[in-house]
Write a structure and sequence with these properties.
Layout (H helix, E strand, L loop, with lengths): L22 H10 L14 E2 L11 H8 L9 H14 L3 E5 L2 H12 L5 E4 L4 H9 L3 E4 L20 H11 L3 E7 L12 H14 L3 E4 L3 H11 L8 H10 L3 E5 L10 E5 L6 H12 L10 H13 L3 H21 L11 E5 H4 L9 H13 L1 E2 L1 E3 L1 H4 L15 E5 L7 H16 L8 E5 L10 E4 L2
Parallel strand pairs: 1-10, 3-4, 3-5, 5-6, 6-7
Antiparallel strand pairs: 2-8, 7-8, 9-12, 11-12, 13-14
């Protein structure tokens, strides 16, 4: 089929050289890294799709803003610029900068969760899940059933399962300390959440007296899907969609290293500035991050973040951004390579269980595919499967993930059509020899939490 590539709504002003190692060199590098992609040096990766977090290309306006950043310790001019932008876009009374998303979770989650508590989400991503566990609480995933079938093409596969959520709220009552809505739903394949589902989830939370936090790392991409796929929003602006969506929450946590297109930064918001949470958030921020008007960021980073908030919601940019994913996914359709479909907002999540049906979950088929892609073409990707999910915090047993995805997370404004074609060609080559990959990997060492960042592996002979 003919595949249309949407032209970039920008032109390139600066370049960074990259190099391709030989196949022999790549095999040696991944062995030295103990088969953990996080242990590779960035310079040894030709195309780096490990994450779309902080790996984006900032604009000339953002770089110019960096030069004008106000480095005052307290009350920086750049902080007030960020505060104004946050209030304007999200409609929240209180905006707290932090150095990245997991810092926002570290500041907020212990205030709402603790020993014996539960937290429910459409799906927790790795750091959020970890911070729930570190608080003493336990996470429960509650995504709609259709998300668990990667081959099923359905809109808004990131949605909360409302019937299951209400059942949990009835069963556990106030033991549930927080509901988290992740937009887009990263662990489910970058799948969006509909405005209808957001509204109905918030109504349930209000009915049972449980606060709702929006994990907003990819809020702009989610808004684009709402505009495109919910008919009543086709004429609404991206900003208006965001304002309404955030009205169905009490707080938000955000890694600004994604949709805000900066290399470092995060935010935390509280809708009602009269909430007692605000004082507690300021105290935790001062303890963990720094004074609350800089939140662990330099003034220049606050400045870039204030500018990036607006660049990230430009509709022409979002059309191109989602168009890149659709182009790569169409190439995989032509090759018969399964992925979480329809394609989501920030990457293509290849179904490694389909690629390697003979490799069981406890030999980590998604991690196996990630390693094979690096060997094939120097492409660094990330496991979103049983390897990342880890062990049950109470029994220590390996958990079986709902998905075995190898995530190709595409940095924003970084790679061209030729790079996307190379990604598709590499996957096609791996598929051709998939039966030659007989076994997966075993873990030889792992830390107790967030193991995928540090664990050592070896191939099973």
């Amino acid at each position: 089929m003919a595949i249309k590539y949407i032209p970039e709504p920008f032109r390139i002003k600066m370049v960074e050289p990259i190099k391709m190692l030989t196949r022999q060199e790549r095999e040696q590098k991944i062995k030295e890294a103990k088969y953990n992609l996080f242990n590779l040096r960035g310079e040894d990766c030709y195309i780096d799709l490990l994450t779309d977090s902080g790996t984006n290309a900032m604009s000339d306006q953002m770089w110019a803003g960096i030069m004008g950043g106000d480095e005052a310790y307290a009350g920086s001019r750049s902080y007030y610029k960020l505060e104004d932008a946050g209030k304007d876009i999200f409609g929240y009374d209180y905006i707290q900068p932090v150095h990245q998303g997991r810092a926002a979770e570290k500041v907020l989650l212990p205030l709402l969760l603790g020993e014996g508590k539960l937290s429910v989400s459409n799906m927790f991503f790795d750091t959020t899940r970890a911070h729930v566990i570190l608080s003493g609480a336990r996470p429960i995933d509650c995504v709609v059933p259709e998300a668990k079938d990667p081959s099923k093409r359905a809109p808004f596969k990131g949605n909360m399962d409302l019937a299951k959520l209400e059942s949990l709220l009835k069963e556990h009552g106030r033991r549930i300390g927080l509901v988290v809505m992740t937009i887009t739903n990263n662990s489910a394949g970058g799948q969006p959440v509909s405005m209808k589902n957001m509204r109905e989830t918030y109504a349930l939370c209000q009915k049972y007296g449980v606060p709702l936090n929006i994990d907003a790392a990819r809020y702009a991409e989610n808004a684009y899907f709402v505009k495109r796929d919910e008919p009543e929003y086709k004429d609404a602006s991206i900003k208006d969609i965001i304002r309404e969506m955030f009205s169905y929450g009490d707080t938000f946590t955000m890694s600004a290293k994604k949709d805000t297109i900066v290399n470092i930064g995060g935010m935390l918001g509280v809708r009602d500035s009269a909430s007692p949470l605000v004082i507690q958030i300021k105290a935790n921020c001062i303890n963990y991050e720094g004074f609350y008007t800089y939140g662990g960021l330099a003034g220049r980073d606050l400045e870039a973040l204030a500018i990036g908030l607006y660049e990230g919601i430009e509709e022409s940019y979002l059309r191109y951004r989602i168009g890149q994913m659709e182009y790569l996914a169409a190439r995989l359709d032509d090759a018969g390579i399964a992925y979480q479909s329809p394609v989501g907002g920030h990457g293509v999540f290849v179904d490694a269980a389909q690629m390697f049906p003979h490799i069981p979950y406890n030999e980590f088929p998604a991690q196996t595919l990630c390693i094979e892609l690096y060997k094939e073409a120097g492409i660094r990707t990330c496991d979103i499967g049983s390897y990342m999910l880890g062990n049950d915090p109470d029994t220590g047993r390996q958990l079986h993930a709902d998905f075995e995805f190898s995530r190709l997370a595409i940095p924003r404004r970084v790679y061209t059509q030729a790079h996307l074609d190379l990604m598709a060609d590499a996957l096609i080559e791996v598929k051709k020899r998939s039966q030659e990959v007989k076994r997966g990997y075993r873990i030889t060492w792992e830390p107790p939490i967030l193991r995928h960042f540090q664990a050592s592996l070896e191939p099973i002979k």
